[in-house]
Design a protein that fits this description.
The strands form two sheets. Strands 1, 2, 3, 4, 5, 6, 7, 8 and 11 form a nine-stranded mixed sheet that branches. The protein contains 16 helices and eleven strands. The termini are far apart. The protein has 429 residues and is of the alpha/beta class. The protein is 43% helix and 15% strand.
Length: 429
């Protein structure tokens, strides 16, 4: 009688070479409406290209129609208009308007290629069935102020007066580089002014229909004004509460977008792992921090939410050595010993997809807390050992794309040489 040898945990990994290898992930996603796709840095080529391939399949095969990203609303709304209206200008012109540091996060060739695909897809579908592209973040206070005042002056002069009053709270500090200084010294009652404006815009937004999704645009810009005031005040107090204000703003913005598109809408969210991986499965929870992945799971339910993390062992990355510093291509050293990434590399050094709840062997193998690399827009390779978040990977994510060797993102300001197509290089996915 022959006996088979026991299976190893690596036997349950899914090889990851082409978009067809994403089938197990799409099966795991099933009918979920909320799919959150992470990244271990804001400057890695493969994170963008694999997220694009997952998104394309979800759009084509499962009817997803919303891309929501860790970007500013006004800039991302320009992409939204471009892909939905079929504008003739080149996408590079649109992306060059992303001028808030770190510009490379969205002004890159990988996003240009994905936006081109979205525009082409939308041209073959009716207006009601076109994919949208929206920003969830809270940083664009000045831009949102200017947009809402300018728009309301044309469409709703009465409410425009409220917008001007709200803007006057901050106008004296507009040229100040320190948001913390602005909000610690801003006039009393600013928050009340912008909340009053937000309520007025929501009540009247059904009348704003002269442009594409003008009502949604007006409402979210007003929401940014309201929450940015809270966010920067929290920053000026040097506490951790600004993180929660920011992620709760992203959740509120997400809810507004979903309400606007109806009960059947499905959304794909692109953000850093620190925002999409459930904070309760990390040491963030001990500091009282929440994040978007946790909030979506809590509000929408585990069955309706799929959190997908990304990570790599070694390569290169785009980042700055200080906030506001010039971007650089930096070396990403081999992952720290005993980290999740180092453990994955030791299996066989290949790209792989993990579905954490697919087999007990996988669940058991990664149930302990492991260091999980998180590279920000500010990075020092010499201090990489401090860039690890203790994580229960099984609880933090539903699935994970491990990419052994990765390369730096391709910022738009650097034109690739030769016959280079960022959305397919280097794997032809």
């Amino acid at each position: 009688m022959s006996t088979s040898s026991p299976r190893k945990v690596s036997d349950f990994f899914h090889p990851l070479h082409s978009r067809n290898d994403l089938d197990p992930l799409l099966e795991r996603i099933g009918d979920a409406q909320y799919v959150l796709l992470g990244e271990a840095s804001h400057g890695t080529h493969e994170y963008y290209t694999w997220r694009a391939q997952i998104s394309k399949r979800l759009i084509e095969e499962k009817g997803f129609s919303i891309i929501a990203v860790e970007g500013d609303w006004p800039d991302c709304f320009k992409i939204n208009k471009w892909i939905k209206n079929g504008e003739t200008k080149d996408i590079q012109e649109v992306l060059h308007e992303f001028n808030r540091w770190p510009t490379w996060m969205w002004a890159n060739w990988e996003i240009a290629a994905f936006a081109d695909w979205l525009k082409d897809y939308n041209q073959h579908h009716s207006r009601d069935n076109r994919v949208g592209f929206y920003g969830l973040d809270v940083y664009s206070l000045w831009e949102s102020m200017e947009i809402i005042v300018s728009y309301l002056e044309k469409e709703d002069p009465e409410t425009a007066e409220l917008a001007r009053q709200a803007m006057m709270c901050f106008e004296p500090f507009k040229e100040n580089d320190s948001y913390g200084s602005v909000f610690s010294r801003s006039k009393p009652g600013c928050q009340e002014e912008v909340i009053r404006l937000l309520k007025e815009v929501r009540q009247r937004s059904h009348n704003y229909d002269s442009e594409l999704e003008a009502d949604l645009n007006a409402e979210i810009n007003s929401l940014v004004m309201a929450n940015a005031e809270k966010y920067y005040k929290a920053m000026s107090e040097f506490g951790s509460s600004s993180w929660n204000v920011r992620d709760r703003h992203m959740m509120e913005t997400l809810n507004r977008i979903m309400d606007y598109h109806g009960d059947q809408a499905k959304v794909i969210i692109w953000e850093h792992n620190t925002h999409i991986g459930d904070a309760r499965a990390t040491n963030m929870a001990h500091a009282g921090l929440v994040n978007l992945g946790q909030l979506v799971r809590q509000e929408k339910g585990y069955k309706n939410t799929v959190l997908v993390g990304f990570g790599s062992y070694e390569g290169s990355v785009i980042a700055g050595n200080a906030w506001g510093a010039p971007m650089q291509e930096m070396y990403l050293p081999p992952a720290r010993e005993s980290s999740f990434e180092e453990k994955m590399h030791q299996f066989d050094g290949t790209n792989k997809l993990l579905i954490f709840d697919e087999h007990p062997e996988i669940t058991n193998a990664f149930s302990e807390d492991l260091g999980h690399r998180a590279v920000g827009v500010v990075y020092d390779p010499e201090r990489d050992s401090g860039n690890y978040v203790p994580s229960d990977m099984v609880e933090r994510y539903d699935a994970f794309l491990y990419l052994d060797q990765t390369q730096a993102l391709h910022p738009l300001k650097f034109r690739p040489q030769g016959n280079f197509t960022p959305d397919t290089f280097p794997f032809g996915i």
